[in-house]
Amino acid sequence: MRMGEGVEWGLHCCLTLAWIDADRPVPTARLATWFDLPPAYLHKRLQALVRAGVLSSTPGPRGGFRLGRRPEQITLMDVVTALEGPDDVFRCTEIRRRGEGGGALPREFARPCGVATAVRRAELAWRRELADQTVADLMASAPPGAAERARRHYARMTG
Amino acid sequence: MRMGEGVEWGLHCCLTLAWIDADRPVPTARLATWFDLPPAYLHKRLQALVRAGVLSSTPGPRGGFRLGRRPEQITLMDVVTALEGPDDVFRCTEIRRRGEGGGALPREFARPCGVATAVRRAELAWRRELADQTVADLMASAPPGAAERARRHYARMTG
DNA sequence: GGTTTCGTACTCGGATAAGAGCTGTCCGAGTCGGAGAGG
DNA sequence: CCTCTCCGACTCGGACAGCTCTTATCCGAGTACGAAACC
To answer: Is the pLDDT assigned to residue A27 strictly greater than 90?
Structure first.
């Protein structure tokens, strides 16, 4: 059980896009060079963020990606859900009612499985923490001057 | 990103072992029949729980598995860690310092990456919820009479 | 009848193959910018 | 000199392979029981 690498990429890209706050969209190639990532695959992951509304894309020359909404309205949960899918981490297959164990007790199965409930409680705590943190919070917790350095660095790339 | 199926199996098996509280160890075949699971693979997953000390095993005839310690001392975190591995869900690859972006700022990298910190906060909340729940809690939250039914069902299987 | 010995069957344990999902790559559709010709 | 047209290049978007990890399976090592032979 491991989180996909694209989540780290997506969060760093969102943070960078928020910091530089460029007038023009930022193409994939720039971000891939910035972080030394495989351009094609990064592109694929950014597309998933566009489908979720986290980013917006512009085709053609001078095109690229920009934030789909303001940084304080992009939660980490949004990014994780967009990149890892909306499915629950824990999937209850109702094994309690399979096999010999569950033949004759239909009334009890009206309530959800206790094991699933317990694990989902942890998963909800995880999702809640992710939903409480926004890209704006990431910007605020960064060392001072980080945004300025990002802008300068990006200006050096474009020029 | 999905949790392995073995976690559900392991938790249900621990709960069942705690309920029936048999004098003899319970072999894999019984548990596999109980939940209608592939016996060989269930066996492999139970071995992982033995390596973690959650279960203890007895070889030979009349052998099998039993709980390695009391139910109130087996947390859901123990089971998940045993079956999914001890690695963090989110792995920070330090992409901030890779590529063009991180060449000239060595002082800043002394502090951990803000993105990683934010995601790890959520992961810690998840682990904490898992660690706060024990197998004994699962037993307590089950409908009354569940333990008795499990014992009767197991007696019918053995006899 | 009691005891010893042997064989058998059962269980765990780890090493060995298929399948799914993540990672990585490619090419096509669409679009903007600029060069060049014409007025 | 200004405007219109056309060409070219750049970017996103989705479809196509390689690889790691999960799932699934098998066979070997060890052990307790039970039967049989022996005392």
So the answer is: yes
